[in-house]
Specification:
Blueprint: H1 27-30, H2 34-50, H3 55-94
Helix pairs in contact: 2-3
Region (Disordered): 1-25
Protein name: Exodeoxyribonuclease 7 small subunit
GO cellular component, one term: cytosol
């Protein structure tokens, strides 16, 4: 089954997974845009790599990083689905011609 997402303004949550697809993510992470999640993930990784946090704080950061990475992946998967749908639609339109496109 191909999930189609309507094309909307770039500032909306169009590439976001459907409701209910994010049961394991905290609500504040689910509401982040791709860029917000990515930027926060970069900060989390930098703090973990610095190694200056106590164990409990490091574990909390790691869990937050996992949630942020999952949200980024959801955004990327949604974008990939939109591109595939657009390509399939485009291919369907191109395939209805005289076949000259196939010779290129």
């Amino acid at each position: 089954m191909l999930l189609t997402v309507p094309v909307t303004d770039a500032n909306t949550d169009a590439a976001s997974p459907p409701p209910g697809a994010t049961p394991d993510l905290p609500a504040d992470v689910v509401n982040l845009t791709y860029e917000e999640a990515r930027d926060e993930l970069v900060q989390v990784v930098a703090r973990l790599e610095a190694g200056s946090e106590p164990l409990e704080a490091s574990l909390a950061l790691w869990e937050r990083g996992e949630a942020l990475a999952a949200r980024c992946q959801q955004w990327l998967d949604g974008a990939r689905q939109r591109l595939a749908a657009a390509q399939a639609s485009s291919t369907g339109l191109a395939g209805s011609g005289d076949g000259a496109e196939d010779d290129a």
